[in-house]
């Protein structure tokens, strides 16, 4: 069966599907999941599969490390802000759905298959003997921060997904004829000739009279049925804003305080990654029995064999647990003081046990100096937040007495802003647009002003996630049609463009009629004005007056027929196809056809993965509510989930 998996993995469709599934999880060896067992701390549960906090943290850390190889300046915070953590979570969910469905279908991987696959990993081969070497494997896994148990589960997961995807791949063969057809379509050429009629050949347009312009202003309507030349409604406002950035300043924070925060974040796993242990526990009645069992385990005997020979209960297996997850505190302290492969007799709160450690991963903690800039910035932000709320309190206390915005601002020392009439998009009465003003007001504040009545201040409202404002509408200037003198320049420019376009369209229609009647294009160009152009183009190419739309039209036009198209403002094209030049499939380079097949396979692979993922997500009922946000935040080192991207 494993040979079948390997044969499948060598096919193009399999390669693309697997790459799509495990993209961003690449390390120096196979295995990108580790999502097939849980320790009770599941970020997401997908059917029988669990994505634990540790597994999510490991996947995110690997992705950050991969990004840092490309750009050393990338930080975990930057990755979170750019949504990388959420992408990693979605990829983990995708892999979990595939594994869950494989298990639901009864697919399974034997230990022999896993061992064989591990032995073929190049990173595990001794560089001298070029054969699998356990010590080399252990060193490689340690460098990657992966335990042997976890890696074995990763291999099992990869093979399970390969089984499932092999079934899907059976429906995804790309027939050679499809690739050949795409080549013929892509390489087909058409020689086309066009008569270009543009504004350079237009007759002079006489100046419009005032009556003509006024009629144009009155009768030109927009898509909403209202006159285009209408002044918007304007509102003058008085504004008081409390913006967090205005309160942020350098704050001298005691070193001891920063260290306390740092220690707290370490203790609560908000930064770094916690220690994990995998172990097997045999419960015995006394110390002598525990010592005997521990000695046997240390000698390499299987826990199940030791339990059977000594008449003990079935061994208890714990995988990737944190210390707080072990109910017996004494046992937990001892287990986390032990190293991988070590066996001991342990007296816990519930009696004696023999324990052997099957996997150990120590905690990783960023140094205090590495975290100092962030801690300092967080302290400054916290102080700024306190200062801002103090300022808000002082301002609102005065307002509560019935004071106006002006009085409340003056008595509380709060800045007051007065804005002359603005439209809802921040354009002023002179029709001037200020981008900075737009960014400051238009997204949230001005729309609120246009929903409020005149003369009364609003309650304090939040905006921008961190800031607050209150405003009063001081004046409302109703919308009205522009007077001619207010809009003469813009109206005349628009009127002239329409006149020119109308003239050119009439010429193009006249030229089309003459050409369809059998006239020569060169003669027609002299009569109506314009120039002729000829090009030989493939689909998607452009040249001269032949833009993409014109070329697309040419590929739907029969040779000898004529079509008219507007190719830009004040520019028309009347075209004909002189010759269809088919591609020669016999002369097609093998590399080109192979590239097309790869492209088709990629497209089909995308469709298969997308459709399969969407179906499984729905089938397992996975939604945003399925995510344990607390554990997800801890896994990615997020201290403030409200900032999540």
TrEMBL record:
<dbReference type="Pfam" id="PF13145">
    <property type="entry name" value="Rotamase_2"/>
</dbReference>
<dbReference type="InterPro" id="IPR000297">
    <property type="entry name" value="PPIase_PpiC"/>
</dbReference>
<keyword id="KW-1003">Cell membrane</keyword>
<dbReference type="InterPro" id="IPR052029">
    <property type="entry name" value="PpiD_chaperone"/>
</dbReference>
<feature type="domain" description="PpiC">
    <location>
        <begin position="253"/>
        <end position="372"/>
    </location>
</feature>
<keyword id="KW-0812">Transmembrane</keyword>
<dbReference type="GO" id="GO:0003755">
    <property type="term" value="F:peptidyl-prolyl cis-trans isomerase activity"/>
</dbReference>
<keyword id="KW-1133">Transmembrane helix</keyword>
<protein>
    <recommendedName>
        <fullName>PpiC domain-containing protein</fullName>
    </recommendedName>
</protein>
<keyword id="KW-0472">Membrane</keyword>
<keyword id="KW-0143">Chaperone</keyword>
<dbReference type="Pfam" id="PF13624">
    <property type="entry name" value="SurA_N_3"/>
</dbReference>
<dbReference type="GO" id="GO:0005886">
    <property type="term" value="C:plasma membrane"/>
</dbReference>
<comment type="similarity">
    <text>Belongs to the PpiD chaperone family.</text>
</comment>
<dbReference type="InterPro" id="IPR027304">
    <property type="entry name" value="Trigger_fact/SurA_dom_sf"/>
</dbReference>
């Amino acid at each position: 069966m494993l040979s079948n998996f390997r044969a499948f993995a060598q096919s193009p469709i399999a390669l693309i599907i697997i790459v799509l599934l495990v993209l961003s999880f690449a390390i120096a060896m196979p295995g990108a999941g580790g999502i097939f067992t849980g320790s009770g701390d599941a970020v997401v549960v997908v059917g029988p599969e669990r994505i634990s906090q540790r597994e999510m943290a490991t996947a995110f850390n690997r992705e950050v490390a991969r990004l840092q190889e490309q750009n050393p300046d990338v930080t975990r915070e930057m990755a979170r802000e750019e949504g990388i953590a959420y992408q990693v979570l979605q990829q983990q969910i995708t892999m979990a759905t595939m594994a869950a469905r494989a298990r639901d279908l009864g697919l399974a991987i034997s230990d022999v298959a896993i061992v064989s696959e591990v032995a073929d990993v190049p990173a595990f081969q001794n560089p001298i003997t070029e054969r699998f070497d356990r010590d080399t494997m252990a060193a490689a896994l340690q460098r990657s921060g992966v335990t042997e148990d976890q890696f074995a589960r990763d291999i099992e997961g990869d093979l399970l997904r390969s089984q499932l995807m092999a079934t899907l791949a059976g429906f995804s063969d790309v027939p050679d004829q499809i690739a050949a057809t795409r080549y013929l379509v892509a390489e087909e050429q058409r020689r086309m000739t066009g008569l270009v009629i543009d504004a350079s050949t237009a007759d002079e347009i006489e100046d419009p009279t005032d009556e003509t312009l006024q009629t144009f202003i009155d009768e030109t309507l927009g898509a909403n049925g209202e006159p285009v030349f209408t002044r918007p409604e304007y509102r003058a406002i008085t504004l008081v804003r409390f913006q967090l950035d205005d309160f942020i300043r350098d704050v001298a924070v005691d070193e001891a305080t920063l260290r306390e925060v740092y220690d707290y974040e370490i203790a609560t796993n908000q930064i770094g990654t916690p220690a994990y242990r995998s172990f097997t526990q045999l419960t015995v009645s006394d110390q002598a029995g525990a010592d005997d069992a521990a000695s046997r385990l240390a000698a390499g005997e299987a826990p199940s064999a030791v339990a059977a020979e000594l008449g003990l209960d079935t061994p208890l297996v714990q995988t990737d647990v944190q210390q707080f997850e072990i109910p017996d505190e004494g046992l937990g302290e001892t287990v986390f003081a032990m190293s991988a492969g070590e066996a001991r007799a342990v007296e816990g709160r519930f009696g004696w046990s023999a324990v052997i450690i099957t996997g150990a991963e120590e905690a990783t903690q960023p140094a205090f100096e590495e975290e100092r800039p962030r801690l300092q910035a967080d302290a400054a932000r916290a102080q700024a937040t306190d200062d801002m709320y103090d300022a808000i309190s002082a301002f609102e206390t005065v307002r509560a007495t019935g004071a106006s915005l002006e009085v409340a601002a003056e008595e509380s020392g709060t800045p007051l802003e007065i804005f002359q009439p603005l439209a809802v998009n921040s354009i002023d009465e002179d029709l001037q647009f200020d981008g900075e003003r737009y960014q400051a007001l238009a997204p949230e504040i001005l729309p609120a002003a246009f929903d409020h009545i005149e003369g009364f201040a609003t309650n304090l409202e939040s905006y921008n996630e961190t800031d607050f404002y209150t405003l009063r509408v001081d004046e409302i200037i109703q919308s009205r049609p522009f007077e001619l003198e207010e809009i003469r320049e813009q109206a005349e420019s628009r009127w002239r463009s329409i006149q020119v376009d109308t003239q050119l369209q009439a010429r193009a229609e006249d030229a089309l009629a003459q050409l369809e009647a059998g006239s020569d294009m060169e003669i027609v160009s002299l009569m109506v004005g314009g120039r002729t152009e000829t090009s030989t183009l493939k689909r998607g190419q452009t040249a001269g007056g032949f833009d993409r739309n014109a070329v697309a039209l040419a590929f739907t036009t029969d040779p000898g027929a004529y079509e008219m198209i507007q190719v830009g403002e004040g520019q028309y094209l009347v075209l004909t196809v002189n010759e269809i030049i088919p591609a020669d499939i016999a002369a097609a380079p093998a590399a080109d056809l192979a590239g097309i097949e790869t492209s088709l396979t990629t497209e089909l692979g995308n469709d298969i993965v997308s459709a399969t993922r969407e179906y499984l997500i729905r089938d397992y009922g996975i939604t945003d509510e399925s995510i344990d946000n607390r554990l997800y935040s801890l896994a990615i080192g997020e201290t403030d989930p409200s900032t999540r991207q």
